[in-house]
Structures are given as C-alpha cells and as structure tokens.
Amino acid sequence: MISAGVAVSMLFASCSDEIEMRRPPVYELPELPVVEGIHKNKAPLYWSVYEYCYEQELAGVSNGDMDITPAQWDEIIDWVATELKPHGYDMVCTDGFIPMLAKDETGYMTHYGSTSLKDLVARAKAKGLKVGVYDNPLWIHGPSETKIEGTDYTFGGLTYNGTTTVLNPSTEDMWFQWVVAENPGAREYIDGFFKHYADLGIDYIRMDFLSWYEDGKDRNIGVVGRGYGRPSYARALAYIAESAKKYGIFTSLVMPHMYNDAELEAAYGNMVRIVADTGGGGWWHCSAADKGKVYANWPNCMNMFDGFVYWSHISGRERVILDGDFIRLNKFDTDAEKETVISLQLMAGGPVTVADQESTIGNDMKFYTNDEILALNADRFVGKPLSPNVTDANNQIWYGQMSNGDWVVGLFNRGDNSVAYNVKFSDLGIQGEWKIRDLWRHADEGTANLVSATVPAHGCKIIRLSK
C-alpha cells in the first residue's frame, strides 16, 4: 500500500540527498540576445514518419534510397485528417533518414526525398493539417558558394576554418557541416533559415544532434565532432530563438546535453527532448531502460518516465515543454501500458507524437483519441510528480491543476505486479471533497477526499476532480 502520507515524508527526505540530481558546474557565457515571451504554446499533437523510416533502415534500406513519394504522402495525410485531426492532431512531420535536399538558389532545404516541401504543405493544408520539418538551422545543405540573402557572406564562410577554438581539434565532424555561430553571417544565415520555412508555410522545426555541436560528444558513441564550445552553443540557441519568434515558428530541441540545469535549452527552446531515441519503443523506452539512472550528458535518461520525473522542475505553463519522443503503440504488450504512455506524456504537459502507421496501428487508435484525457493538452495542463527523485517510488504519483480549477491526479505503476494506492487529496495540497471522474474508464466515481485504487502492472489510473 502506497499512502500519500508516506509519500510526502519520503519526498522531503529525498530532496536533500539526491545523488542523481547533482548538476555540472556553471559556465561563463557571452552576452546574448534576450528573447522573451516564447513559452506561450501548448505541446503539439501530431504524426511523424519516424516509425516508417526506422523500420526501413532496419530492413536494410540505405538512407540515400529511402523515400516517401507524393502519392504515399496523400495516403498518410488522408488517414491523419480522418482519424486523428478530429481529436486535435493537426500536423504531420518529417524526420531524418530520407535525403534532405536543397534544390533552389536559397541553399536551404526544399525537398524531403522526392517530395517538395512546398507541395507537401499544399497537400496537407487542403486537408486542414500543418507540416513540421526535421532540420537544424546549424546545418548547411546548399553549395558553399551560395550567398546568404542580403549579405556578401557565403555558406562556405560559415563553417570551421581552422582558426576557431574547438574542444576536439583532432576530430572531424561526423555527418554534418555545422554553421559556427561566431562566424560572420551566421546570424543572418539562421534568420534566413526561419524566413525560408515561414515562406513555405512551415511553423514547426525539430532540430537534432545539438550535443554534437556543443562539445562533440555523445555518451553512447563517444567523440563525434570538433565541439564548438558552450559559448558558441549559447549564441547559436539565442540566434535561433530570436528568429523563430520573429517568424512565428515553434522550435523543438533534440539531443541536448542540458548542462547547468538546462539553463540554455529552457530559455531558448519551445520544447526539449528529455529521453533517448524511441528506437524499438515499447515498455523498454517508456519505463524500463536503465530505470532509476541519470547521466551527466546526452542522453541523460534512457526511458521517458525517468526523463519526465528528473526534468519536471523546469516545465510549466509559461516554461519550456518536455518532450518524451515518439510513441509506437504497436510495440506495447498490454492495454495498460498503452494507457500509461499516453497518460504520462499528457500529465507532464508533453506532446503526443503518433509514429504508428495505418498498417501497424491495429486496434490502438482509441488510445490516441481519448478526448477526455486529450483535454489536458488543450488546457496546456502541466502536472508534477510527488517526488522528483528517479529512485523514489513516489515519482509514480502525479498531479496538477487545470485552468478552470479542476485537479488531475495520475497514479502510475511501473512495476510488474499490481499496486494498491490510498492517496488523500489533502496530502497533495488539494483540500475538501471532490467529484471523481476516471478519464480512461469514462466513469464517475462519486465524491470523496481521497482516491483508493488497485493499479495493474505497467498501468495507470487518471482521475479528474471537479466541484
């Protein structure tokens, strides 16, 4: 039996003795642009090509040969518009894997494989959907002689020239040609990047491999690049934030180290990834992978539950959004697990990113389209765990308040056996008796000042309290 009284006492004991909550040292940063008012958005609900591409790669298709044709996009858009859009999912998004091509004089990305982004936006808009793009304003796609609009600078002058101080001077950058933020023209190039996408009708950019730019390191791979340093990374994020705000584009920061308690990512990004890549997905990625462990650099957490718990203190209605990465419901074993992965994202104020395809989703669409729990997203709800310690069982109790005064309480069970809960609302700071509504069972459960429930293995119980 987990009682709220015990939970509260454990919370205060753990906060003073959390080994895994230690932070790296403070870094000296350059004077940076101040970018205010960027944390006004709710987390997005959308569909991603990730699973399709990931499975193609596993099947041996090279990235250079991978594609989604315009005809395939039409089928995807029709399916998303029919099945998901009525429930608030309003966007389709590209990812990596497929060639990202620059085919006009701007030098910025214009095609995702065989499909032009301009055409993709038109196809999606005709069905009432938006398009998000996987790209990074620090990557160069076009020829080195391409001029940055409105300047005499060229793309070639943006890259490492041998004189920039880097952290790993004997290492070549893997995969990417990086824009060095201190080089002349970098700020204008980044501004042109966002103007390019705004002109195409894109309003969401998912930018990846940020840790590789900052210090050229990846915990799972090792040294992967030169590493342009903390001050350069800070300057780059500031330039990105100012231009993204200027053109009304939502930014998603992926693979950041989150050094110094995520001071830069929380200040300059709309949303930030807090877990390793989804990969094969399932319960392993949701809760089990390296459970209870947090690392000093990317990826800090290997499962989304630990990531949401560990970084819960930086999120909120007017703060950065936490992203638990893509969801592949077809990789979960039980309905309880499927309810948990959707609920966790929404209780933490994160996005729900559908990666299942029409051919793989089976009977699981009902978990993505539960309007009662999706109401949390529409309200910009952000809950908190009772304990922010990844090794404390009380991180499985989440709660928060809706904008109309209702409360939402989530009881999760990460274990392999059922767990009995008996939680007094007063121990969560919620006074009095409330009407209780189970959001997954769609059932009213009377009026009370506590919740008692037996939660199945890998399952959850999400209740809404109203007067």
How large, in whole angstroms, is the Cα Rg?
22 Å
Helix amount, in percent?
A: 25-40%
Strand percentage: 15-25%
Question: Might you state the CATH topology name?
Answer: TIM Barrel
Overview of this structure, please?
This protein has 467 residues and is of the alpha/beta class. It has one domain (29-383): Aldolase class I (TIM Barrel, Alpha-Beta Barrel). It is built from 13 helices and 22 strands. The chain has an 8-stranded parallel β-sheet with strand order 13-12-11-8-7-3-2-14. A 6-stranded antiparallel β-sheet has the order 15-16-17-22-19-20, with helices on one face. The chain has a 3-stranded mixed β-sheet with strand order 1-18-21. Strand 19 and strand 20 form a beta hairpin. The protein is globular and about 70 Å long.
Brief sketch in words of this structure:
The chain has helices at residues 4-15, 50-58, 70-83, 117-125, 186-200, 210-214, 230-247, 259-268, 282-288, 304-310, 335-347, 365-368, 371-378, and strands spanning 2-3, 45-48, 91-93, 100-101, 111-112, 115-116, 130-134, 204-207, 217-218, 222-223, 250-253, 271-273, 321-323, 352-354, 384-385, 397-401, 407-412, 419-424, 434-438, 443-448, 450-455, 460-466. It is built from 13 helices and 22 strands. The model is unreliable at 1-24 (pLDDT under 50).
